[in-house]
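PROTEIN SPECIFICATION:
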Amino acid sequence: MQEIDFLPKKFRDRRKRRRANLYRWIGAASIGALLAIAALLQLGVQHQLQSKRNQLEAPYQAAVAKRDQLVALQSKLTDQRSEARLYAALCSHWPATQLLVCITAQTPESLSFRELKLYQETTAIARRKSEEDEAAASQSPTLRDYDYFESLRGSRTAKIDVNGDVMEVSELYEYLVKLNDHPLIQRANIESVEPVAQGDDSGRSEFELQVVLTPPLGGKAVPAATTASR
C-alpha cells in the first residue's frame, strides 16, 4: 500500500536538505579521515627515513673524512715525488773520471790519443708563451722547477771529440764498436780517418771520433741528427 505523506511541501524540502547536508558532512568527514590517515602514514615514512639517515650520518661523515685524507695524502705524495724527481735530476750527471775511463779503458795498443774535448751543444727549443703559462698554472712550484730544468737539460747534448792516431784502422772500428756498447755512450761515430802526411812510412792514420753521451737519469735521448749550435 502506497504511503501518503501529508506534510506540506516546504517541510518535505526541508527534510531533503537536511539529509543532503548530512551526506555532505559524512563525505567531508570521510575525506578528512583519509587525509589524516595519509598524513600520519607520510609522517611515519619520514620518521623512518630520518632514523635511517641519522644512522648513516656517522659512517658518511667518516667516509668523507677518509676521502679528504686520501686527497691530502695524494697531493702530498705528488709533491714529494716532484721533489724527488727534481733532486734526482739536479744530482744526476756523469763524473769526468767515469767518462775518461769509458773512453780510454778499451783502447787497443795501436791507438793513441792526441786530444779529448768534452763540451755541450745547445739546441734552440721554440715554445709559445701562452702554452708555458697554461702548463705552469696547473703545476706545483716544484714540478714547474723540474720541468724548467728538464727543458734546459733537454736542449743540451753532451759530446766528446776524440782525436788521435792508429796503426791498424781495423782496430779503430773494433774500438768504435766497444764504445757504442758502453752504457754511458749513446752513440759514437767516426768523423774522419786519413793517413798521415806523405814521407811517414809508419802506416799511421789520423782519426776523429765524435761520442754522444747517454743522458743522465731522467734525461731524454737526443735524435741521431740535430741542428745545434755549439
Summary: The beta strands are 111-122, 156-166, 185-195, 205-213. The two ends are 134 Å apart (CA to CA). Residues 218-230 have pLDDT under 50 and may be disordered. Residues 10-91 form one domain.
